[in-house]
Structure formats: C-alpha cells, structure tokens
C-alpha cells in the first residue's frame, strides 16, 4: 500500500509523492546532490544534519544498505528526496532495503516526485527551507498548508551552530584503517603508528579518520568544545579540524581554540567546516552560498601547479577569498563558480581544503593532501 507524502518549499512549491521512510514530519534546508553513487555515505554524513537531501540520480536504493558503508553512527540527514526507489534491492553486501533503513532510524523519505523540477528550483533560487509530511500527516485537506507552514517555520542554517550538537561527548581513540610503513620496510604492519593526531570532531566522517590512520596516525578524537590547552596537553604531532554541519561563524569556541593552537608550531589540517574555521581563526570571513556544492564531480584547480582535480563536495558556506588576510594564501579554486577551495597560512604549518579529500562518495584526486599533512608532521619530528 502506497503511503502519501508531501514536500513543500518556502517559496510555495509543493510536490506530491510516496512515503518511503518513516511517517511524520520533518523540516530543514533542502539541497541537491549530484553524485551517482554513495547514497548511504551521504545519508550518514553528519554535515547533512538539518538538511533534506534530494539526489539527482534517478534510481536510488538499488544496492540496499549495509552496516559498513556509513560515515557515522546513523542517518544524519533530516530527510531524503528521490525520483525512484527500485522494487528490488540487490547486492551481495545488501543487508536491508533503503526503505526499511529509513524507517528503522525514524527518518522520512519521499519518492516519485520530479527531482529535475525540484533541482532547477534549488539551482535558480538557492537552497530552500522545506518540509516533508509522510503517511497520515500528509492526508487531509489542510495537509499542503501544514507542509508549507512547516517549511517556513524552519529558521534556516545561517547562524546555526550544529558542530557542538553532533560532536562526540568524550574523547576516544581511533585506529581503524590498515596501516603499513610501506614498500621497502621489512616490517610493514607492526609497531606503533608514528604520528599522534588530535582530531576535533565537528561532525567527522569516518573515512577521514580511516585515511589518516592508514597513513600512520594514532588518533585521539575530541569533542568540538575542547579547549586548546587540553589538546596541547595531549602532546600531539598535529591537529586535524573535521568537517561538520551548520554555519561555521557561530562556532566561537572552535575559532578561539584554533587561534591558540596556531600560536604553536603544530601542523594543522582542516577539511570543509574545518577549512572554514581555519579561515575564520586566521581573520577571514565566511559567506552563505546560494545552493552550495554537493556532488562528486566538481573540478577544482590547484593554483600552484595549474592541475585540475575532480573532487567530492558538500558545503553550503564558503570562506571568502576577498577577505583573506596577508598571511593566508589561496591554494585552490572551484572551476564551477570560482569560489575558494583551499588555503594555507604563510607563517604557520597550517592548510585546509573545502572539498572532501576522503571522497566518500567520490574520486580520489585530492587524497594526496593527507600525505602533505603527514609530511608536515614528519618535518616537525625531524
Ligand atoms: N561538509 C562540511 O563540513 C560542511 C561545512 C558547512 N556546514 C557548510 O555547509 O558549508
């Protein structure tokens, strides 16, 4: 039996479809992601907290879901919007259908709407606040009115500090990710990983931790509001600033901590929200973008080499290149809209990237940035 669902946007657009997840109501900022694969990683990326994600690829759910392809402990997105849910989920790793997965985590989803029309609205007008009603909530003459009211009641992500909401509550150690010293070493897998990295958890994706661990990092993941003094007392070789949801600007605790860590000579590497926070801590400004970047095929240019990389992206805010102070250099730029994609401090061993070098989902072109962080720690140890 099909259950009804409604998606409403703050601009008054209304879509009628079928409920594929839990019944009830949800609201958030509606964004579109153009990646063709990775729906499970997208749903569980904490950076999507309070965002309703529509996927432009039309068939979503073909391979079902499994317990491994997750970027956090559960679904973080506020809702899912798709064109078509296949009748059958089929893959040797499939443990559950996408629909059962959404229901089991009490997350709403809507299918059988014109996602091309929706995407054009978001592209032309910018990301919209929106709401989904599903099941009994979507029935009755006043359902559309209630959906529009819920969409307009969402306050918007600007000014919203979500990093401290999704962050871990207590520090923990991370070692998942195969590590070896590499070719040429007799003993490739034994012994202690050589670099101790403290990672600020603003909503960290697990594949970032895996990629650091597999390059020789022992990781201590700490809550977003951990003061710099506590981090420095752990005597790290480097500090990592994670991705995360919401607006970077209100994260004053993180900006202050990063400023204090910048006073030392510790290597710092930031990804996405971590990049925006490094920019803010260095005196630059961030801005809300129109519809942001969410996809796995975004061309980004390395400004030093001229090389163009295909990258994975998920952000709705950006550090403003025009606001960079003299001791911050632009290192990367988006070839889609010219926005800033990477920075480095000229006076400190600190750099950051706006897109996702860990690329889950996505291409691996930017993965060497992890190696750059390792080289900085190696240089400091020497
Ligand atoms: N993936 C991220 O870290 C996103 C950063 C920030 N929340 C933004 O939307 O721009």
UniProtKB/TrEMBL annotation:
L-glutamine binds at residues 47, 244, 246, 273, 276, 314, 316-317. Its EC number is 6.3.5.5. One of its GO terms (molecular function) is carbamoyl-phosphate synthase (glutamine-hydrolyzing) activity. Pathway: Amino-acid biosynthesis; L-arginine biosynthesis; carbamoyl phosphate from bicarbonate: step 1/1; Pyrimidine metabolism; UMP biosynthesis via de novo pathway; (S)-dihydroorotate from bicarbonate: step 1/3. This is Carbamoyl phosphate synthase small chain. The active site is at residues 272, 356, 358. It comes from Halomonas mongoliensis. CDD domains: GATase1_CPSase.
């Amino acid at each position: 039996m099909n259950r009804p669902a409604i998606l409403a946007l703050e601009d008054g657009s209304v879509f009628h479809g079928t409920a594929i997840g839990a019944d009830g109501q949800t609201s958030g900022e509606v964004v579109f992601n153009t990646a063709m694969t990775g729906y499970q990683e997208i749903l569980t990326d904490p950076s999507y907290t309070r965002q309703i994600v529509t996927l432009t690829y039309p068939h979503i759910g073909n391979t079902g879901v499994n317990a491994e392809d997750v970027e956090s402990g559960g679904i973080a997105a506020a809702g899912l919007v798709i064109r078509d849910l296949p009748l059958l989920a089929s893959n040797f790793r499939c443990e559950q259908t996408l629909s059962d997965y959404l229901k089991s985590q009490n997350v709403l989803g809507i299918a059988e709407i014109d996602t091309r029309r929706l995407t054009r609205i978001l592209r032309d007008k910018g990301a919209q606040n929106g709401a989904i009603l599903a099941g009994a909530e979507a029935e009755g003459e006043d359902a559309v009115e209630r959906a529009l009211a819920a969409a307009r009641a969402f306050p918007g992500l600007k000014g919203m500090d979500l990093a401290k909401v999704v962050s871990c509550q207590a520090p923990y150690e991370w070692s998942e990710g195969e590590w070896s010293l590499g070719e040429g070493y007799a003993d490739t897998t034994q012994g202690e990983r050589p670099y101790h990295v403290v990672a600020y958890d603003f909503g960290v994706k697990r594949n970032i931790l895996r990629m650091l661990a597999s390059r020789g990092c022992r990781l201590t993941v700490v809550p977003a509001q951990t003061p710099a003094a506590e981090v420095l007392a752990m005597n790290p070789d480097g500090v990592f600033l994670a991705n995360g949801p919401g607006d970077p600007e209100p994260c004053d605790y993180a900006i202050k901590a990063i400023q204090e860590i910048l006073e030392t000579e510790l290597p710092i590497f930031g990804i996405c929200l971590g990049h925006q926070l490094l920019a803010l801590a260095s005196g630059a400004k961030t801005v809300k973008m129109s519809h942001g970047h969410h996809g796995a095929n975004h061309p980004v240019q390395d400004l030093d080499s001229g090389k163009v990389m295909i990258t994975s992206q998920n952000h709705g805010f950006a550090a403003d290149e025009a606001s960079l102070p003299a001791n911050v250099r632009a290192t990367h730029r988006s070839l889609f809209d010219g926005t800033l994609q990477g920075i480095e401090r000229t006076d400190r061993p600190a750099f950051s990237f706006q897109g996702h070098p860990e690329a889950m989902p996505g291409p691996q072109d930017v993965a060497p940035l992890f190696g750059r962080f390792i080289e900085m720690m190696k240089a400091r140890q020497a």
